[in-house]
Amino acid sequence: MLENGINRRQFLGGSAAAVALSTINPKITFAASGDTLTIRSPGDIDTVDPGFWKNTTDLWVMDAVFPRLINFKSGSKWEWELYSAESISQRDALTIDFKLKPGSMWTNGYGELTTADVKFSFERYLDKELATETADNWALLDHVEIHDKYSGTIHLKEPFAPLWWFVLPYATGSILCKAAVEKAEGGKFTLEPPAMGGAYKIVEHTAGQRLVLEAHDGFVGPKPHFKRVEILPITDSKAAENAVQAGQVDWTRVSLSIVPKLRANLPDNLSLELKYAPDNVWMGLNQASPRLSDIRVRQAILKAIDVEAILDGAYFGVAERAHGPVSKGLLGYREEAPAGRDVDGAKKLIEAAGASGVTVTLDTLADSDFLTGAQIVQANLAEIGVNLVIESHEGGSFWSLVSTKGKEGIDMNFNRWLAPPDLSWTTQWLLSSQAGIWNWQWFESKEFDDLHFAALGETDNAKRAQMLMDLQQMLDDSACYLWLTQPPRPMVWQNSIAAAMKPNGDPRLELFRKA
Predict the structure, then answer these.
(1) Is-contact 481 441, C-beta < 8 A?
(2) What is the average per-residue pLDDT within 86-93?
(3) How many Å is the Cα radius of gyration of the chain?
(4) Is CB count within 10 Å lower at the N or C end of the chain?
C-alpha cells in the first residue's frame, strides 16, 4: 500500500525523472495525440503479480491488464461497479454468488476467462508454500465453488465486511489465468504476466523509462477510448509539473506546493482537481523505547506538537487535519476534531514524569514535507524541555530501521501509508502480531486485536462504524499515534482529454477519453 518503492506501505521513488523525460522530444505536444495517452507515474513497476505487488504503479498496471469481478467507479464517491462480472450478489454473510461476462479472452492463446480462473486466483492466497505477501486479504476464504463455465460461489469461513472494499475491487481481486500462471516458474511472476485479460496488455517495458500498454481486443468490458497508453516513471514532482505544463504528458499528479500557484493562475490548457485518498500521514511513538515508556512523556509530546503549523509549513495550507486514521466520508469517520495544542499541559506532564531535558530521536524519510514537519516538531518540543534529534533516511535505510536500531532504539517516526477505503486495512498492520514488523510503536493490546477481528466480520454498518471508532479511541489512548492528515492528491491534466479517476486519483485508464 504504498506510493512507490520497497513495499506497498511505503512512499518511495522509482526511477530518475531525467531518464523518463529524455525519451520525449520537448518540441512535441503529446496531449491526446491520435490514439495515444501519455501519463506520468511516480515510479516504475516492481511486480505486477497481485500476490506480491509493491507500489502505486503496480496497482495501476494490474488494474489495466487483469480482469476483476468488480472495480471502483470513476468519480468522487467510493462505490464499486460490475467489471468482468455480469452479476454478483451476497446471498448471506458467508456466501457471494457471481457470474462472469462470457467471451472475455486471455492473451497468448490461453482461451476464455472462466470460473476456474477465478477459483485459482482467489484460492492461490491460501497456498502456504507460495506464501503471497497479501495472503491476509483472503485469510477468511474457505473456497470458490464452480457451478459452470461462468458461474460460481465464493464461500467464506467467517463474515468479512472489507471484502467489498479492499479485496474484490482492489489488487487481490485481480483474476489471473490459471493455465498460464501454473506454467510460470514457482507459480508466480514479476514484470511479465504470462497472460493478460484486462482492458489493456503490456507490449513494451524499458526499465526506468517507459511502459507501454495497448488495448486488448479480447476484453469484454469497458472498451478503451485510447488504443495505446504510455506510462512514464517520473519520480521528481517538479519535472512532472514542467512536463504537463509543456504538454509532454497528458495527466499527472503534482506536488501540493504548486497548488496555490495553479489555483491563482491555472493555464488555459490544464485542469486541476484535488482527489482525496484514505492515505495517512502520521507520527508514531514507540512505547518500548526507554525514553518513551512513560505514557506521560508520550502524552506530553502529543500535546506539544502544533499540527496546524505542520500543515501550513509542510502542506502549504492545502491539507486538512486528520480526525483519526479514517478520512471524511468513510465508515468510522469521527466528526469531532482532535484537541488543539496545549503547551502548558505538556509541560506539566513532562515535569510529573521527571523527563525534562530528555533527548529523543525522530526518524523520517528524506522528503521535503517530512523534513519541514520534523523541524516544526523539534521547535515545539524544545518549548517543553524535550530535545529532538532529527535523523533523515533514504528509503532503504528507513524501512530497515527495526533491524538496524532494534526494539528499544526507535523513538519516533513519520510515516505515510497508502490505504483503500476501509480502516481494517490500516489496523491489520497495528496488531500485536505486527510488533516489530510494521507496528513500530510496539503497541500490543489483546482488546484491540480482538475488536479488529470482530469488526472484520460485522456486516451491520452502524455497528461496524462504532467498532471502528472504538478502535481509533484505543489508538488515541495509547498515546503512540498522532494522525496528521490525509493529504489530497492534486491531479492535473490537459483539457484535450477527459480524465477518469477513482476517488483517490488512481486512473481508470480504459475510461479516459478525448474531450
Answers:
(1) yes
(2) 96
(3) 23
(4) C
- Note the pLDDT of residue 13: 31
Helix (H, G, I), strand (E, B) or coil at 461: helix
User: How far is CA 179 from each of CA 184, 188, 511, rounded to the nearest angstrom?
Assistant: 9, 12, 29
Percent over 90 (pLDDT), the chain: 86
- The burial class, CB within 10 Å (0-12 / 13-18 / 19+), for 7 is middle
Dist. CA 170–CA 62, nearest whole Å = 9
Report how far residue 439's alpha carbon sits from residue 401's, in angstroms, rounded to the nearest whole number.
12
CA 187, distance to chain mean position in Å, is: 26
10 Å CB burial of residue 257 (0-12, 13-18, 19+) is middle
**Any idea which residue has 491531479 for its cell?**
491
For residue 420, pLDDT over 80 is answered with yes
Residue 144, all three cell numbers? 470458490
Per-residue pLDDT tens digits for 208-231: 999 999 999 999 999 999 999 999
Residues 118, 125: Cα–Cα separation, whole Å: 12
Question: Which residues touch 515 (CB under 8 Å, ≥6 apart)?
Answer: 32, 495, 496, 497, 498
Q: b or e along 445-483 (b: 16 or more beta carbons within 10 Å of the residue's beta carbon)?
A: beebbebbeebbbbeeeeebbebbbebbebbbebbbbbb
In which band, very low, low, confident or very high, does the pLDDT at 30 lie, cut at 50, 70 and 90? very low
User: End-to-end alpha-carbon separation of the chain, Å?
Assistant: 32
Tell me the CB-side half-sphere exposure of residue 436, using CA atoms within 13 A.
Answer: 9
Say how many C-beta atoms besides its own lie within 10 A of residue 71's C-beta: 25
- Domains of the chain in start order, with CATH, are 17-254+490-514 (3.40.190.10), 280-485 (3.10.105.10)
Q: Can you tell me which residue has the cell 518500548? A: 288
Q: Which residues contact 481 (CB under 8 A, 6 or more apart)?
A: 282, 283, 284, 285, 325, 441, 443, 475
- Burial environment of residue 359 by CB neighbours within 10 A (0 to 12, 13 to 18, 19 or more): exposed
Cα(175)–Cα(101) distance, rounded to whole angstroms?
13
Q: What is the pLDDT of residues 343-399, one digit of tens each?
A: 999 999 999 999 999 999 999 999 888 999 999 999 999 999 999 999 999 888 898
**Geometric angle at alpha carbon 58, from 65 and 511, rounded to 5°:** 45
Distances in Å between the alpha carbon of 128 and those of 48, 124, 136, 190, 211? Answer: 20, 9, 11, 19, 32
Q: And the C-alpha cell for 26? A: 520537448
pLDDT at position 32 is 55
Cα 87 → chain centroid:
27
Among 141, 107, 109, 99, CA closest to 122: 141
Half-sphere exposure of 392 (CA within 13 A, CB side): 10
